[in-house]
Design goal:
This protein is α+β, with helices and mostly antiparallel strands. Helices cover 37% and strands 18% of the residues. The chain has helices at 51-69, 98-108, 123-133, 138-147, 169-191, 241-255, 291-296, 346-356, 416-425, 443-454, 474-480, 487-506, 524-540, 547-560, 564-586, 588-612, 652-665, 672-675, 688-692; strands at 9-15, 23-28, 47-50, 75-81, 85-87, 157-164, 201-210, 221-227, 230-238, 257-268, 276-286, 304-306, 313-319, 332-337, 339-340, 361-364, 374-381, 384-390, 695-696, 702-703. InterPro entries: Cell_cycle_regulator_Mat89Bb. One of its GO terms (cellular component) is cytoplasm. Residues 563-650 are annotated as: Disordered.
């Protein structure tokens, strides 16, 4: 049903009633030679066109632009309505010319202002327009013949453009109701006919024309859906140049056209042949000629400007000096027919004649700074002028660009092989309608869903992934993207996860990229942490699909949560790796320092053990050794008894404490009370009994 769009058929209905003979009140000067006119000659009075003349001229410009850009597949049917309708041409291709339309319009003539207005109505032409839309064009007949049994799939859509002078908004609604009823009646007739087609969609564009200086009686209205078969929009426009601008905008909207203005065109002056001036020419063409600007967002760099109506934009391109070699081949990415906006102006006529003589003109983007960028070229082929789009980045005739020169910079480690496999797995193939299940999804929808699943997580660069560089993860990566999993698939995924756990237990190396990092890269446990995080990210993107997908994710989470003894083992492994890295970093120097420290430590420990043993202890601080200047003289006393040896294993702390205690006891005279104490109690007044003959006991009691 999308084979033919609304733009395939366009019916112009122009009002030919007496009120269209009214003046548009836009003055046109006929005597422009005011300076060279002789004295005494009366200047010509200005004239004004009628509403009918304005409507015909503007509609002819609409047709001219359409025939220039689309000479074959866009058709126009022209109808004039007064007391009856007059069809000026048919849908046949040989009738689709402005010469044919102008000849028939000349035969129709201007409206008769003395004709009875009650007998004239625009409704005659609107009814005929709906009937004309139901007629089959040559292109539609060819498609229906090619499809044979499925001819009903050929759509029939069209547009009606009505130029009239409506009375009020109520009058407009009455016209819309009339068209709606006519469409329903004609669809009933077309249902049983092979020469007619039912109308699936009709767009009504009603243009209300009124003279300048008067107030409009009809208000503008954007596109509105009247019914599933009919949409309507209303434009209230003053006659004259305003009507010409409106139809120029409508033809761009209806046929997806764009505007380009060629600036700085050098032309010699007619009156002064030795001088030249720069002119501008506006061209209309298909919108795809500016597709690169729209994609890159460089419209501001291409000189986008808004015209006075404010509704359409034009892109400005600068004239370049034309090439003298006409046979030079330029690498183009597209060629589109053009149509001058003001075809009768002198600059447009000079430009078209220049191009039709076999010359080519290069067009560049106007830039304030930087190098010149030539983006388009004007050239003629077979008597028709085309706007060529040049590839300003790289020629399609050259060797294909290196993948390292892509948008991501000089990246050289793209997953090219994996991407080729990805394309093979997601290629589209034709499918017959007989093999399609009507109750299920369409094949194209299934293909889109599969492509979406496969691209949820797909790193493009080798250095940005770990799991896709591991052969051990391939079974899980191929199965997890499936729409549904079987029990066997779940077991395969779990087996893959257990293999990864075993690899981590054995401390096997992983293919971790060291690009952009110093040294050997991350530690082994950090490598596995990165691997597990990426694997969990991959499975999480598909976990919500089914319960079996969730079971795979649960298995990964369960395997990542390790017992405490496993964490302690990995901590010891990290310390060992740190020592190895330091040894490799410092080399033999650190090895020598480490051996010296070990030997020094053993000597010290041996000395402590010897000092703790009184039989083998050698006192360094003997009385014969000289005393330091800042040290008090040591008092010579009796040697304290050695401390009691602890039974069982002796710790390094106890040995150190014993040594300090023994050393301190030799450096000062022991307190008399501590040495003479009995059961940790010292007896006071020991010589009192000898002097007085009294025996003093505790609590102050005496005895003889």
């Amino acid at each position: 049903m999308k084979m033919f769009s609304v733009a395939h058929k366009t019916v112009f209905v122009v009002d030919h009633c007496p009120y269209m003979a009214e003046s548009s009140r836009q003055q046109v000067e006929c005597d422009v030679l005011t300076k060279s006119r002789a004295q005494g000659v009366i200047p010509l009075a200005p004239v004004s066109k009628s509403l009918w003349t304005c409507a015909v001229e503007c509609s002819m410009e609409y047709c001219r632009i359409l025939y220039d850009v689309y000479p074959k597949d866009k058709l126009i049917n022209y109808i004039v309505s007064d007391s009856e309708f007059h069809i000026l041409n048919s849908w046949r291709r040989e009738d689709q010319t402005t010469h044919e339309l102008m000849a028939t319009l000349a035969a129709v003539g201007p409206p008769n202002p003395r004709e009875d207005p009650e007998c004239c109505s625009i409704l005659h032409g609107l009814v005929a327009a709906v009937e004309s839309l139901c007629k089959i064009t040559e292109l539609q007949r060819e498609k229906r013949t090619a499809l044979m049994d499925t001819a009903e799939r050929v759509a029939n859509r069209g547009r009606i453009i009505c130029l009239t002078n409506a009375k009020s908004d109520t009058h407009v609604r009455m016209l819309e109701d009339c068209i709606q009823e006519t469409i329903l009646e004609q669809n009933k007739l077309a249902a049983g006919s092979d020469r007619l087609m039912a109308v699936q969609q009709c767009d009504l564009v009603l243009v209300h024309i009124y003279p300048q200086g008067e107030d409009t009686l009809v208000s503008d209205r954007p596109k509105k859906e009247i019914s599933p078969l009919l949409t309507s929009e209303v434009h209230s426009v003053r006659a004259g140049r305003h009507l010409a601008s409106k139809l120029n905008i409508l033809v761009q909207q209806h046929f997806d056209l764009a505007s380009t203005t060629i600036t700085n065109i050098p032309m010699k002056e007619e009156q002064h042949a030795n001088t030249s001036a720069n002119y501008d020419v506006e061209l209309l063409h298909h919108r795809d000629a500016h597709l690169e600007f729209f994609k890159s967002g460089d419209l501001h760099m291409a000189g986008t400007s808004t015209r006075e109506n404010g509704l359409k934009e034009t892109i400005t391109l600068k004239w370049c000096t034309p090439r003298t070699n006409s046979i030079e081949l330029h690498y183009c990415t597209g060629a589109y027919r053009i149509s001058p906006t003001d075809v009768n102006s002198r600059p447009s006529s000079c430009l078209t004649n220049f191009l039709l003589n076999g010359r080519s003109v290069l067009l560049e983007q106007p830039r304030k700074s930087g190098s010149k960028v030539i983006s388009h070229m004007l050239s003629s082929h077979g008597g028709e002028i085309f706007l060529h789009v040049l590839n300003s980045n790289r020629s399609t005739l050259e060797d294909p660009p290196s993948i390292s020169e892509g948008c991501g910079g000089r990246v050289t480690d793209y997953r090219i092989t994996d991407f080729g496999e990805f394309m093979r797995e997601n290629r589209l193939t034709p499918v017959s309608e007989a093999s399609h299940n009507p109750s299920g999804k369409l094949p194209i929808e299934r293909a889109k869903a599969q492509l979406e699943r496969h691209t949820r997580y797909w790193p493009m660069i080798i250095s940005q992934t770990t799991i896709f560089n591991m052969q051990a993860v391939v079974p899980l990566a191929n199965l997890i993207v499936k729409e549904t999993l079987t029990e066997e698939d779940v077991l395969t995924c779990q087996k893959t996860i257990y293999n990864l756990v075993d690899m981590e237990r054995k401390n096997d190396p992983l293919p971790i990229s060291t690009v952009g990092s110093r040294g050997k890269g991350p530690k082994r446990d950090e490598q596995y942490r990165i691997m597990w995080n990426e694997l969990e990210t991959l499975v999480k993107t598909h976990a919500a699909a089914t319960d079996r997908h969730q079971r795979v994710l649960d298995c990964i989470i369960a395997c990542r949560s390790k017992p405490p003894e496993e964490e302690e083992r990995k901590k010891r492994g990290r310390k060992r790796e740190d020592r190895e890295d330091r040894m490799e970093k410092n080399g033999s120097k650190e090895t020598e320092d480490k051996s010296w420290q070990e030997s020094e430590k053993s000597v010290r420990l041996k000395g402590l053990l010897e000092k703790d043993n009184p039989e083998t202890e050698v006192i360094k601080d003997s009385p014969d050794s000289p005393e330091p200047l800042n040290k008090k003289p040591r008092l010579i006393t009796e040697e304290a008894p050695p401390p009691e040896r602890a039974k069982g294993p002796v710790t390094l702390l106890s040995m150190w404490t014993s040594r300090i205690t023994a050393a301190n006891s030799r450096k000062h005279q022991e307190f008399f009370g501590r040495a003479s104490s009995v059961n940790s109690k010292f007896e006071l007044y020991q010589h009192l009994k000898d002097e007085s003959g009294m025996d003093i006991h505790e609590n102050g009691k005496t005895s003889r």
